[in-house]
Amino acid sequence: MDNELYSKKFEKFYESLTANFADTSDIQNVVSLAVQGIAEDLKIGMLTADVNIPVSVRVPNGKNERYILYDSGAHSEEYKEFQYLTADGGRLTYQVYSIPDYEYDVEDDKILDFVIGIIAYVSRYVRIAEHDAMTAFTDSLTGCLNSNGLSRNGGLLFIKHDIADYASVYFNIKNFSYFNHVDRTKLGDEILKKFSIAVNAYIQNEEIFARLGGDSFVAFVKKERVDNFVDFITSMNIRANTNRGPKDFTVECNAGLYFAVHKDNISNLINYSAIACKYARNSKTYDCVWFRDYMIDDNLREKEISYKFHDAVSEEKFAVYYQPKVNLEDGTLGGAEALVRWAAKERIIQPNEFIPVLEKEGSIKDLDFYMLKHVCKDIRTWIDKGIEPVPVSINFSKIHIYNDNLAEKINKIITEYGVDPKYIEIEITEKSCTDDFLTLKEFMKAMQDRNIKTAIDDFGDGISSLTYLRDLSFNYIKFDKVFIDNVDNGSQKDDIIVTSLIDMLNKLGKCVVAEGVETKKQADFLKKVGCKYAQGYYFDRPLEKEDFVGRLENKKYDY
User: Fold this and answer.
1) For burial by CB atoms within 10 Å, which of 159, 185, 302, 552 has the most?
2) What are the tens digits of pLDDT across the range 268-293?
3) What is the number of other CB atoms lying within 10 angstroms of the CB of residue 307?
4) Which class is domain 8-136?
5) Kind and range of the H or E element at 507?
6) Superfamily, domain 147-291
7) Domain named GGDEF: which ranges (predicted)?
8) What span, in angstroms and rounded, lies between the C-alpha atoms of 113 and 121?
9) In the chain, where are the structural domains located?
């Protein structure tokens, strides 16, 4: 090869290669034009490139294509191959075919290696530069648009198209914390990536899909496609790797929907569909909820509660009320349930106003531990004053069960206050069983190992299962009010169900507590069929701490 590397031709080749790229779509044309100027000197008959790009949100189906970058019309059958890795885990492979009857020597190989290396370097540089330019607008984990990209691309979309032609869909993956718990964050990340790739592939060119963080997504889709889109995202099968090998998962979503009108902007679309999604997450009936105007006022109240919560905790504005549990066998105080009230400046805020809000945002965990500490503090005070306490149950949200150290953390607090574990019971709702049965089973076993009693609350409010009764190592089970209400109505079927359940639980060594007892007839019936404890307004309303001390000092009830 009679060629001087630093010739005018090569200089022109380098300038042409580095100065003319607009984006990755130009790579083939620019390289082809640049190679034409040096192909004759380098004895190149044909230059091809294999481009292999892995599956991602930006390239949903991956890429595996061959490009002819230069073809003189005649070339040898033999070729030299050069391979380079790309930043996204792909590969660029170049094949250099000499002109007919020419065989590259060692010196030629060095020159070709240098030239092809420059082509590969510039190609990768352009891809990286394009990626960096998109970084501000794309999600680092999934590669789909982030909130900045949503605003930018949404603005461009609605310049070209009428915003009133679109629906906004805001959606969350149901029980996403489960995936992180199964295999730490690895499984959760893989689910997010594969879910995003699938949704992005379903989205059409004139629609937009973005991840806003965590497992929260939003899409602007054509109104006529919204039903099909919702069907697609609300139940999707994804195969992912776990620490025990590949496994198939059904990924389901809650979604909030909003139909845009002409006066709307992007913020409206996101906010209104997000508000509707909150309702979907709380709904027992619907996975998808359409936005309604009244939801705005509810959302403002929720934001106010969320904003004031942490100050209320630090200022100890939450008060513990104790609702007595009565031993039906001897009519004495046998225990109590700790209930929370928010003593705001203007009024006492009831739990049904703030508990659902704190559940949704996760702050309920702080409140649960606040209650545990204050109950332990009260019990310690009563003991120091010579007042014999009774066991007190504290409600813990189901979101705690994914904390592997939950049992130890509870035990540590009890120990810090010098309280005997026999005075503390932890209640978990029956619905927690359906979310992650195995994790709940591990938690209850850990509590049993520490001699701390547990209870299943609201039994009968969800889909009750005999599996829970057989396999979970709990001590108490609390019948939901729904079982008790019909006792006064003379329903023979309800009487048979309650009687049979109590008899079975007693034989299993579980202690039954009936909630919501409001009449003497209910109390007498429960005593007759072997229910050990009852609580409700028939005996006592939730009592302030000072009033409950009076009950501790006089534990006898007349009923």
Assistant:
1) 302
2) 999 999 999 988 988 878 899 999 98
3) 9
4) alpha beta
5) helix 492-507
6) Reverse transcriptase/Diguanylate cyclase domain (3.30.70.270)
7) 164-294
8) 12
9) 8-136, 147-291, 317-553
